Amino acid sequence: MGFLAGKRALIVGVASPRSIAWGIAEAMHEQGAELAFTYQNDKLKPRVDKIAAATGSDIVLPCDVASDDEIEQVFTELGQRWDGYDILVHSVGFAPRDQLEGDYMDVVNREGFQVAHDISSYSFAALAKAGLGMMEGRDGAMLTLTYLGSVRSLTGYNVMGLAKASLEANVRYMARSLGPKGIRVNAISAGPIKTLAAAGIPHFRKMLHHVEETAPLRRTITPREVGNVAAFLCSDLASGVTGEITYVDSGYNILGMTGLDES
Ligand code: NAD
Ligand code: 0WE
User: Fold this and answer.
1) Given the CA of residue 160, which atom of ligand 1 is nearest to it?
2) Sheet strands side by side (includes 60-62)
3) I need a labelling partner for 101 at 20 to 30 A (CA). Which of 78, 133, 204, 216 fits?
4) Residue with the nearest Cα to atom 13 of ligand 1?
5) Main-chain phi, psi angles of 36, to 5 degrees
6) N-terminal to C-terminal alpha carbon distance within the chain
7) 10 near 88, Cβ under 8 Å?
8) Alpha helix locations (H) across the chain?
């Protein structure tokens, strides 16, 4: 029996088979969790239907996290299928395209800042809050996805770095707030992966090669590797872990002074 047997998980953030959330869904399903999914818009629904079918789920609900009404509606509908749930996975990030091209000081503006923080950070607390009633009394766990650009300045990540810093602080404040209810809140900081969110990012291939050449493991990571750690963090095996940012990045974040090693 898997270590998530008897657990029910809501997965927010599948957009394609390459999505990190897809790897998380597969890993959680393999460990025996029952799954439900949301999709951002009608264009993405067929993809989400596919991963739902592949993991034995027929709960697929619309949710644009920019909308308070749609967030409320998810839990109204989920409540008609499940009397409660144990795991929330938030794998959502967005900034307007112009924010990720060019130098930070040249491109940052009020609208870009606001959207990045709203969609990439606030939405985690908003989903957690809207679904809290359904998680209370069940030793629940919540998980979000972050990136190194929250704590280091990286070319082009720009206002997304600020939004991820906010998201990581959100993890700590949510952990403090929900801990007394027995609910744990954690994040995985993933290394770069070629997903839709990476499509069109200038020099993304170069970044993958840089990781392959310098990270301690000398390779990039896969959505499934993130999924396995996500399954662990959301399981009772991690019952003493909350408020943490766990790196799944081939060890890249521990490095200083790269580029001098021979192999
Ligand atoms: P992805 O494009 O597959 O997933 C991003 C998801 O965000 C999509 O499912 C999209 O529908 C959703 N989304 C965006 N705006 C939304 C909105 N308004 N309402 C609802 N959903 C919305 O890409 P991914 O790489 O799997 O990204 C998932 C998470 O992982 C993001 O938070 C991203 O920042 C983070 N992350 C990605 C990488 C990487 O290199 N790919 C590395 C570290 C962290
Ligand atoms: O979090 C991300 C990217 C998130 C993202 C991607 C897009 C592309 C489409 C947010 N908003 C948008 N808006 C769009 O219109 N990552 C961790 C992937 C990523 O993006 C980078 C990276 C890495 C890694 C940008 C610059 C440098 C590194």
Assistant:
1) 34
2) 60-62, 34-39, 8-12, 87-90, 141-146, 184-190, 245-248
3) 216
4) 92
5) -135, 155
6) 42
7) yes
8) 20-30, 45-54, 68-81, 104-107, 110-117, 123-130, 132-135, 159-178, 204-214, 223-233
Kindly report, residue by residue over 158-213, the tens digit of the pLDDT.
Answer: 999 999 999 999 999 999 999 999 999 999 999 999 999 998 898 999 999 999 99
Which CA distances in Å does 245 have to 68, 92, 248? Answer: 27, 16, 10
Q: What radius of gyration do the chain's Cα atoms show?
A: 18
> Are 248 and 190 a contacting pair, CB within 8 Å?
yes
Please tell me the residue having the least CA distance from ligand 2 atom 25. Answer: 157
H or E segment at 178?
Answer: helix 159-178
What is this structure's pTM?
0.98
d(CA 54, CA 26): 8
Residue 161 structure tokens: 């770095």
SS3 category, 260? coil
What atom in ligand 1 is closest to the CA of residue 119?
A: 18
- Tell me the β-bridge partners of 246: 188
Q: Is 39 a catalytic residue?
A: no
- 252 part of the active site: no
Tell me which residue has tokens 């985690």.
124
Neighbours of 208 (CB within 10 A): 17
Ligand 2 geometric centre to CA of 56 (Å): 31
Give 85-102 as a 3 state SS string: CCEEEECCCCCCHHHHCC
Residues in contact with ligand 2 (CB, 6 Å cut-off):
93-95, 97, 100, 147, 154, 156-157, 160, 192, 197-198, 201, 207
Q: Which ligand is nearest to the CA of 191?
A: 1
